[in-house]
């Protein structure tokens, strides 16, 4: 009997924090793939592409190679230069780091399907309040328009490597530009700032946006991995023939 598939979710707090709420996009995927695929988070709040690449061997060796991996990094890299905490990573380095991380994933299993998720949005005013409260950052932090180049860089890597991707920076602000608009229109908000609760991290609405976009992408680009296309692991109890039970 074939093993369950492995879905590994790689990234920063946009992925890690999704497992802090039942409404998160990660747990919702895990429910969809129950008995069909193991959904494994390997995501670390605050990590930049530089930090993730530094620990790449330890991260990837912590679980068997995945069949499918999502990669969502770059939001922390997009901190303004000079921001306390050393988050800022120049966009060209971020782009190069992202490509190197993908290469490391493929080195362990060239058949792994990788989905690239770009950084999402920042609400300038609320993000500034969050940075002051949480990190005592008075100047710098994260700005909406500054983040565009990082989302575009992630998209460029995906296009260069012919990987499926979702540009959340673009789609959350202009959902009709999303190729998955028909799948997400029921969760589209009238104000894109509603997708983040503290100016940076996903709200319930933001998690729904990511979840529905990702499900639509899998159906379009990786239909063999749709949850309704996969067999369940182990027989359904009612289907077991107890007159001739398995050994």
Automatic annotation (TrEMBL):
<dbReference type="InterPro" id="IPR045136">
    <property type="entry name" value="Iah1-like"/>
</dbReference>
<dbReference type="InterPro" id="IPR013830">
    <property type="entry name" value="SGNH_hydro"/>
</dbReference>
<feature type="domain" description="SGNH hydrolase-type esterase">
    <location>
        <begin position="9"/>
        <end position="207"/>
    </location>
</feature>
<dbReference type="InterPro" id="IPR036514">
    <property type="entry name" value="SGNH_hydro_sf"/>
</dbReference>
<protein>
    <recommendedName>
        <fullName>SGNH hydrolase-type esterase domain-containing protein</fullName>
    </recommendedName>
</protein>
<dbReference type="Pfam" id="PF13472">
    <property type="entry name" value="Lipase_GDSL_2"/>
</dbReference>
């Amino acid at each position: 009997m074939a093993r369950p598939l492995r879905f590994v979710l790689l990234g920063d707090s946009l992925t890690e924090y999704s497992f802090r709420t039942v409404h998160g996009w990660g747990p919702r995927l895990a429910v969809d793939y129950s008995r069909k695929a193991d959904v494994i988070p390997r995501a670390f709040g605050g990590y930049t592409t530089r930090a993730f690449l530094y620990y790449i061997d330890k991260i990837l060796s912590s679980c068997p190679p995945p069949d499918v991996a999502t990669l969502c990094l770059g939001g922390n890299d997009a901190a303004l230069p000079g921001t306390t905490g050393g988050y800022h990573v120049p966009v060209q380095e971020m782009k190069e780091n992202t490509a190197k991380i993908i290469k490391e994933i493929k080195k362990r299993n060239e058949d792994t399907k990788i989905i690239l998720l770009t950084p999402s949005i920042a609400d300038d005013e609320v993000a500034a309040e969050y940075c002051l409260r949480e990190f005592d950052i008075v100047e710098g932090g994260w700005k909406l328009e500054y983040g565009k180049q990082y989302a575009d860089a992630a998209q460029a890597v995906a296009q260069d490597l012919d990987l499926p991707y979702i540009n959340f920076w673009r789609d959350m602000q202009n959902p009709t530009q999303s190729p998955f608009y028909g799948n997400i229109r029921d969760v589209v908000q009238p104000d894109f700032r509603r997708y983040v609760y503290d100016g940076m991290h996903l709200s319930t609405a933001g998690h729904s946006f990511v979840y529905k976009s990702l499900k639509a992408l899998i159906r379009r680009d990786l239909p063999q991995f749709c949850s309704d296309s996969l067999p369940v692991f182990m027989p359904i109890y009612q289907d077991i023939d107890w007159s001739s039970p398995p050994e």
